[in-house]
Design goal:
The complex is a heterodimer of chains A (about 325) and B (about 190).
Chain A (H helix, E strand, L loop, with lengths): L3 H8 L3 H20 L4 E2 L5 E2 L12 E4 L8 E5 L4 H9 L5 E8 L11 E10 L3 H16 L4 E5 H9 L9 H10 L4 E3 L6 H13 L13 E8 L15 E9 L2 E8 L4 H17 L9 H10 L4 E7 H9 L16
Parallel strand pairs in A: 1-5, 7-9
Antiparallel strand pairs in A: 2-4, 3-4, 5-6, 6-12, 9-10, 10-11, 11-12
Helix pairs in contact in A: 3-9, 5-7, 6-7, 8-9
Chain B lengths: L2 E3 L8 E4 L2 E11 L7 E8 L5 E7 L3 E4 L2 E11 L4 E4 L6 E4 L1 H4 L11 E7 L2 E6 L3 E9 L13 E5 L4 E4 L8 E5 L4 E5 L2
Antiparallel strand pairs in B: 1-6, 2-3, 2-6, 3-4, 4-5, 7-8, 7-10, 8-9, 10-11, 12-13, 12-15, 13-14, 15-16
Classes of the chains: A alpha+beta (about 325), B mainly beta (about 190).
Chain lengths: ~325, ~190
Amino acid sequence: MLSSQLFALSEFDSLRTRLEKRSQLLQTVRAFFYARNLCEVDTPLLSKAATPDVHLHSLHTQVQVPGFKDPQTFYLHTSPEYPMKRLLCHGSGDIFFLGKVFRDGDLSPRHQVEFTMLEWYRLNFSMFDLIAEVAGLLKSILGDLSVEQLSYQQAFKIYAGIEDIFSASAAECQACLSRFKVPEIVGVDNDDKPLWEQLVLTEVIEAQLGRTVNGGHRITVLYHFPARDAALAQISAENPQVAERFEVFINGMELANGYQELSDAEIYRQRFNESLALREQYNLPTVPLDENLLQTLQNKSLPDCSGVALGVDRMFLLQQGFSDIEQGIGFGLLAQ
Amino acid sequence: MATYSTTEFKGGLKFLMDGQPCSIVENTQVSPGKGQAFNRVKYRNLITGKLVEKTFKSGEKVDAADVVDTDLQYLYNDGQFWHFMDATSFEQFQAEEAAVADVQKWLVEQSMCTVTLFNGQPISVTPPKQITLEITDTDPGLKGDSQGTGGKPATLSTGAVVQVPLFVQIGESIIVNTEKGEYVSRAK
């Protein structure tokens, strides 16, 4: 069902047909979760706090709050993660969010500043339990694709020929990039191993993920990312080098990113503060931390759970054979 | 010198790379979400015409190139330089052979060309899409085919050689498409 024939068809879709296809997709997603007893939550888009993550840029706006002389700064969420985790702490049980999120500066065939995200949390699910559920959802929408599961380390071995990425040097990563004839990279320090490693992943490996040998689509899951990329995932109990974090790829495109969730309030604060320090180092604007989340994690504690965020516009692109997620939206940022 | 950051990159942006003017053909942002963002850039070196690919770490800066496209009238070739003039300011520009190498056979005196200037110096010239030229030489013996199915080579006043229909003769003027180097029709 992912044939080029579908693409040709969708080129000639009437507006109504395309709207119905998107509507049908949202309906299928909701039905999948209702059938599994997850509760849909529509958490606030505006927040006094923002993610400190250095790679995410929050939009902000001014809100006139009664009682204040000047308008107050509020941030548009980059994902519903923080309020959803507060709900989990308060005993919400399994929940999902399906709605718009905002990331400043991201615009490409795979990005829109405003896009539709699906995020869900499952109590007592391990990372691998959740990976299985993500694969199940994708199959219900994209057809019966095969699933390939690889550790981050295995992916570097299989797709980049780097035996052990954790002990490899920056020079080995650079040699790999030239072996795969990746165009010259400008602006990266010679000894910045983590960044050269990232480039091997994005410029060499990712394009090969989610594809079968004969060019068809499949679901490839990478798990156990390096601990430095843990974000808010747990560090693996067996191997402190890796985090219980996974990403899902189809046809060379990242679709989803999930964690076995960190629960220790102190580590949350510690990782947030590390991000704030990096922001200062990179001359990025500082942001207020979500003290409500940190307080709640401290007082109520997050139940054992795993959570994942999935790009719905990318899933629609794959289902319909679009070349740009904007084709499935109709009114992209610059097409309004 | 003015600079551009990667956030300003877009198709058509002119910048300097190793001192040579370049123009961005395609710019794709790579934002992995968990990592550093990059820009995958395809650009053309405006001197050599070569298409180059490079990936820039987001936040990197390049120097702006003083490159403008301007409509100038072609005047004459003095054997060393090709001379052009701005028809309103009467300012004159001289282009070296490298700048006109691909198009000199389509340069007709008095015609308006698009000239790309780098720091005020012509680096490339685009002649009008269609020009009228006289045939100076072609085989007169081939006649009788008025359907235009066959063809013969004809030398034009600028030295260019194009395929023309058999019925076209020496001394006639024809319209030529300079992009494709093809005969279009007889000139009226």
